Every structure is written in structure tokens, then in C-alpha cells.
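[C-ALPHA CELLS]
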Amino acid sequence: MNKVLFIGKINETTKDIEKALREHFYVQICPLNKTSLDAMMKVVEPELVILSLVGAYEIDSIILRQLEVAYYNIPVITIGTESERDRFSTFYNNSQFENLLRPIDNNRIIEAVCRRLNILFEVQNAGVKIRNENEKKQILIVDDNVMVLRNLKEMLQAHYDIVVANSGIKAMTAIGKHRPDLILLDYEMPVCDGRQTLEMIRADEDISDIPVIFLTGVSDRAHIEAVLKLNPAGYMLKPPMKKKLLAVISKAIEG
């Protein structure tokens, strides 16, 4: 896990931020003390420093100067109000330092840490998910035919993390639990068909940009034109050829 040193006075605010950070990073707390900072920097060897400006006093200038001179290669994120930040405005001319204005959501703090450390992350309904670069992309396959779901899963699971749903409603539930990178969506389904499912996806701005590839078992021209009018990321006739399906998925995800 990436190492983060959190400098600040222990209070309910810092405890709450620390708890959120510990879900994703190795975090050590350091008091507002120059000697303690030097000791902790040697022991922890952090990749990033967070400094809470809550109740900031003159000693914090000493700590900021110490970080600027002795640890210039380590990014520093401060968290404080405009007045707290303005006390140390000269430091923010240096790209090493960045301030996040209080009050701030913990997820935004995690996003900022990820950005400064060049870590992949994605925003979900339940918060922020940090992704390993080698982690497989997730594909949600939606089809009312169990055999189709099984065959497509076997075809793709060596390349992607696969989640399946046998209806449009269950697909929306699955998306709410974890945002997929791409959706393979059957166009012909009872009750809630592919068109209606796509409309629900596009109506939600948090998931509207997920690429959707339609799967259809009907090949007449009028049917294909109806599918294409919905502007999906792609469409394929069932049963799809593995090589072509992988190529279409890769293009949609990368694009």
C-alpha cells in the first residue's frame, strides 16, 4: 500500500479523515512538531504528506518550510479553510504544495491523493475505488438466456472480470453495486428490453458514459437500423465470434 504521513492535531476531524484514508493507504499520524516530523519521515518514508491546517499556528510555517527544503520531492496536500490557507499562501506558489478547502468530503481527499500519486481510481456510488494497473476491466453481460450468459462468460473471463444479469432490472442493480467498464446488452429481452435498459443507463449521469454493446439475434435490416439509432458503442449478432467480440470490446473500452 502507498505510504501517507498525516500531520495534524488529533481531533474528530482528523480522526475521520484518517479512518477514510486507512481503507486505501498505509497511514501514520505525526504531531505538529519539527522533531517528530523528521523522525517520522525517516521511519515511514512516505510517498505523500497530508497536513491539516485546523488550528494552524506559527509552528506550521516551520513545518511547511521543512517539507519544502528537506523533502522537496514529496507532494504535500494541506487541508484548511481559505483563512487557514492564506496564512501560508507563499508555499502554494510551489507545485509541491496543494490545498483542499474545508469543509471537504473524504472521497475528494482520496481522489486528490490518488491524483498526486498517479494512482488509478474510479468514483462509485459508495465512494472511491482505487484500481491496480494490472486489475482486469469489468464487463457486465445482460441476457435473459442462461446458456448465452454462460457461453459469453467462458469466452471472456480470461481477459475480463465478468458479472452477469438475466434482466434489465437486475443489470441496474449490478451497476449500482459496482460500475462496470463496459456492458454487453441483449436487445431482445422480456419486460425490460435492451432499449429500455439503455435508456435507464443514459438517464443516470453517473453511469451514462459506460459504453454499451448490443447483442441481437435478429439480423433483418429494419431491426439493425433500430439498434443503431440508439448510438451504442457497438453491436454484434448472436452468437458472436470470440476474436471479433474481443476486438469490439477492446475498441469500445479504449475509446
